[in-house]
Give the backbone structure.
Amino acid sequence: MLGSTMNTTALVAYSLTKEYNATPVVQEVSFNLNFSEVLGLLGPNGAGKTTIVGMLYGGVAPDRGFVKLGDIQVQSDGRTARAKMGIVTQEDNLDPDFSVFENLLHFAHHYHLTGKTARKRVGELLEQVNLEAHGQKRIDELSGGMKRRLVLARALINRPHVVFLDEPTTGLDPDARQEFWKLVIDLKQRGCGVLLTTHYMDEAQRLCDRLLLLQQGQVIDQGTPLELIDRTIGKEVVEIEGVDEARLQALATQFNSWCRPFGSGYLLALPPAPTPLWDDLVATEPQRLTRRHANLEDVFLRLTGKVLE
Amino acid sequence: MKRLVATPWGVYSVWHRHAKVYQRTWLVNFLPPVTEPIMYLIAFGFGLSPLVGDVIYAGQPVSYLRFIAPAMIAIGVLFQSFFEGGYASFIRLNFQKTWQALLTAPLSFTEVFLGDWFWAATKGMIAGTLTGLVAVIWGLYSPLNLLLSLPLMLLGSLLFGAMGLLTAGSVRQIDQINIPIFLLIIPMFTLCGTYFPRETLPPFLQTIATVLPLSSLIDLLRWNLGLPSYWWLQFLWLVTLMLIFVSLAIRKIYPQLIK
């Protein structure tokens, strides 16, 4: 919708770099966020995801680099930029003294929305995030998922073109996560560029059109989830337990594959079928042997040697 | 630090948010602190008047109640603006994360800061004015005196609100707010010519008390009873302190929000 009538790039982040006490937290991170797209920043805790989001809206001042939203440079005019952004921070900073409805109503005031116009908009937003039946509730009466949806609604007051979601489903139960995901897909379909940070592999895989994989503040790889899996792992992996590592490493080398410690066992990539590696692994008589489709977690393990927390 | 950007709407919008919270919870927030200086006025006024009789102020005998009435206005201003700027802003900054939420809206740091500061000052004005009205009804302060004192009360509210914000920006734990309360607020409350003329203090204490800003505010609010010859210095002192405290408060709070 928006993407077809305007330039497809909603936001450009260029060479973002940030240090705290001489420790680099984000290093030379650049990317574009397009309209009608969900871009994911995937990485473990401490990878710099929240710092990057902070730099996107002006909550963190980069040491180097800049962010542009259309013609607006966020670092010099964050106020104007934020009028066109929707920001969902990690913490639920709702007003506990206000009802659900009032939270949105008084926040709308900051966007010059008052009176009837504001009330109408608040009604629309509550409907959009499925909270229309809860307008009069107090904040402490809401479930975690409802609070997150309310923070999202608050971010959407001004019909933003880009929305940042910083770990929006952390701590939510599976149903609440599913419900939140629907809202994210809805935003994308409305033409929004959505940037989402997560350390949930399934969330990244299901929601994101493109991913930046982050480790220690650096982008270690990027692409669509499928591209990343295909390029880094292939189609299938094997989880194996109860076999000596040296033996597995030898097999991996022989079949031009790789092997990494994984949980209480090891993970091996299976070369494209038909592969004798599988038969050889079966022949080792392991305690446990599982063959499954490769996923983003495997990508991360391969690239960093670490499992996503 | 980036250049300071503020629009009247942005500042008003933040102030409006605080006012709406206050409106919601006013019975809880409003009665105890506002009645406090009024209670002092009544208790000390009735309790001590028979013992003290008249006080000599600016070379003139003044009834004890007329003497303490302007001081009680100043105390209302002090307590309300300092506690709003210190305690309530600390909660908004560290527990409720209201400042952080506001900074996801199209508001600048300056707007959020000024909105908070002006709200703290507003609370000082509410307390000062209500105490003043009681004094007026009691016949201790004329309505015209009160009206003309409003700008002075505003100056005091802004000064003590800025002191509160500096506290909110400096302390790490909520208990630490007690430090400025015991080192500064309570000494001011008791020593700055509130309940007795400062001349009765030993010279050393008298000097300290005179430097503390509440003394200047009280002396200026007693303008109807007579002004010290150095009143303009006191006025400048309040303005200077206000500017110092507010710039220190900005320096303390800004890095907590824009990292």
Remarks:
- Chain B touches chain A at residues 2, 5, 9-10, 13-14, 16-17, 20-21, 24-25, 96-98, 100-108, 111, 257-259 (CB under 8 Å).
- The CA atoms of residues 47 and 79 of chain B lie 22 Å apart.
